[in-house]
Amino acid sequence: MLIIDKLLVGGVRFVLDKLVSAVEQELDDDQPLKDRLLQAQMQLELGELSDAEFAQIEAEVMARLREIRERREGPQLGDAGVAVVGIEVEADGIGPAAAGGKKKSQKKVPRRKK
Q1: DSSP secondary structure code for residue 66 in this structure
Q2: What are residue 90's phi and psi, to 5 degrees?
Q3: pTM score
């Protein structure tokens, strides 16, 4: 009975993992948004949309595209809550660049002969 329970739980887990993957892929797909923006541009050129209607559609699509990009790329410098908190610089023959920094061991790489 324990083996059957493990198989059932494993099967359900597999299905749920596949479902989560499909939902994440759908959320990260920006092609429908790009298609919607292209469609709105064509409708604007044909006179089917006013400038105000197009501007509203464009703003919504661009905001959604930014959300997708942020989810794909993660936090970027300049985003709220993201800051540089330190930097380490290393230069050959000079030693540690930051006060109190530790000098890393240097390995010499042989140069290839031409």
Answers
A1: H
A2: -130, 135
A3: 0.48
